[in-house]
Amino acid sequence: MMDWEMLAAIGQLTAAAIGIPSIIYLAVQIRQQTKERTHAAVHALTEQWGDITGSLHDNPELADIFLRGVRSFNDLDANGKLRFSAFFNRLLTFFEGMYYSHEQRILTDSSWGAVERTIEDFFSNQGVQEWWQVRKRWHTIEFARVVDEMIARAGEPVAFAHYHSGEVGRTGQQAEP
């Protein structure tokens, strides 16, 4: 005849046999949901990047302001400074979101590395550095530190250098060399 201890042991064994597969199933479901959320977040960031860069190729006047502004933010007129600032603030807010996505492990190290190289390319330009000195207080202290470190590492500007000599500047006008 079974005593109470034997019945309790059988009950615990039965609970473990039923509970362990349930825990494994739950872990698999959580992992799958996390993966889906990560893919959705990366997709949203990719769409935002397309929207931001699309504003340059859809608007020749903004593209001209951009190219002149990366050379010298200080030389832009008031309208140019406003438009350049609006564009770069949007761009840096996007990059800041990417930074925090990386910090939360939503964005992979290799993807963040590509973002870092892009930011460094932008910030190797004198005009972007001039803009940053005026506008970095619009961003979190943590992200501002990261950008400042990238500026320190950035080399000579090359990403936009070949757009400056002999290219069309203002829509329909020859750019100054």
Mean of the pLDDT scores? 80
Helix content: over 70%
Largest sheet: none
Distance between the termini: 101 Å
Helix count, DSSP H or I runs of 4 or more residues: 6
The total domain count is: 1
Order of helices and strands: HHHHHH
Structural class by SSE content: mainly alpha
Strand content: under 5%
Assembly of the depicted chains: single chain
Round the Cα radius of gyration to an integer and report it: 26 Å
**What's the shape?**
elongated
Low-confidence stretches: 165-177
Number of DSSP strand runs: 0
Description:
With 177 residues, the protein is mainly alpha-helical. It has one domain. It is built from six helices and no strands. It is elongated and about 90 Å long. The protein starts with a helix and ends in a 24-residue tail after the last helix. 16% of the residues are buried.
In short:
With 177 residues, this protein is mostly helical. It has six helices and no strands.
SSE blueprint and pairings:
Blueprint: H1 4-58, H2 60-71, H3 78-103, H4 109-123, H5 126-135, H6 141-153
Keywords:
177 residues; mainly alpha; 74% helix; 0% strand; elongated
